[in-house]
Amino acid sequence: MEPILLIRNSKSGLALGEQKIQKEIEEGIVSLTEYGFEVTTVSVEDILEKEMFDKKVESLSPGTIIAVGGDGTVNLVANYLTGSSIRMAVIPAGTFNHFAKHIGIGTNIPQAFDTVMTGETINIDTAEVNGRTFVNFSCIGFYTQIIKRRTAYQKKSWKKWPAFGMSMYECMKEYSSYSFVIKKNDSEMKVRTPLIFVGNNIFDFGGLDVLSSRQDFTSGKLQLSIAKEMGRWRIFLLAFRSLFMDVKNQLGFTTTAIDEIEIHANKSKVWVSLDGEVIKLQTPLRYKIIPQSLCMIIPRTTVPSQHPL
Q1: pLDDT tens sequence for the chain (309 residues)
Q2: 3-state secondary structure the chain
Q3: What is the pTM of this model?
């Protein structure tokens, strides 16, 4: 039997309902076993440190590792597997599941388990900032401050959406733009902005699901988007309107496709969001694309890449 390591985030699933998710995941694990896989399940807490993950992989020698959770869980596993020959699969059990939707897996958990058994394997790009991998996007500025506060409220047992609302309110009271110097090769540009967005490949913005789609997973490019400077009430209005309509033109993003960039700040460390998780990193922030560095299992009927293995 082929070994599979399934990494499960028990805290995911607020959007779909915990009982429904638990039932579908358990049924999916049974279907993997019946298909002929030997499934070992661990929690995210069991492999938070790379050393813990490596020991588990060494003992099991899995050909496939499944991330069961949201974009944060996907990010954790991708950090461990980038550059490896081990295949990664995703079961979308989070709130937004941007990565699963963009790559064609969708949000249906039973179908995602079917993909593990019958899908094809491709190599996709990942992105990196100061040695940390991300598969969706990284943000600096206003959005990052909201997520940082939201996480703090959730650690106090707040639900995600009330925590997000309170964090938005607090950040609006303290709102200000940020100053950065962006360097590319021998050129540099000074900017003052509420938000810098760096995407792994090229994103489309707009609609209820703000990051609605991605053009490709193997373009070998980062998307650097810089929002124009604006006042607090304007950005609050745009944040509200983004729930119902495309506001990317009103945000005035300056967008460029690049393969690497260096961002300097007037602080030695800044808060940065990576796939919805917030960490503090030393400046300057050095972003780069890592072409076709992650082996992914995707549905055979969906081909987001022209580079199958």
Answers
A1: 899 999 998 766 544 467 888 899 999 999 999 999 999 999 999 998 999 999 999 999 999 999 999 999 999 999 999 999 999 999 999 878 989 999 999 999 999 999 999 999 999 999 999 999 999 999 998 777 777 767 776 677 777 667 667 766 666 666 667 899 999 888 899 998 888 999 999 987 654 444 567 878 999 999 998 887 766 666 666 555 555 555 555 556 788 899 999 999 989 999 999 998 889 999 999 999 999 999 999 998 654 444 333
A2: CEEEEEEECCCCCCCCCHHHHHHHHHHHHHHHHHHCEEEEEEEHHHHCCHHHHHHHHHHHCCCEEEEEECHHHHHHHHHHHCCCCCEEEEEECCCCCHHHHHCCCCCCHHHHHHHHHHCEEEEEEEEEECCEEECCEEEEEHHHHHHHHHHHHHHCCCCHHHHHHHHHHHHHHCCCCEEEEEEECCEEEEEEECEEEEEECCEEECCCCCEEEECCCCCCCEEEEECCCCCHHHHHHHHHHCCCCCCHHHHCCEEEEECEEEEEECCCEEEEEECCEEEEEECCEEEEEEEEEEEEEECCCCCCCCCEC
A3: 0.84
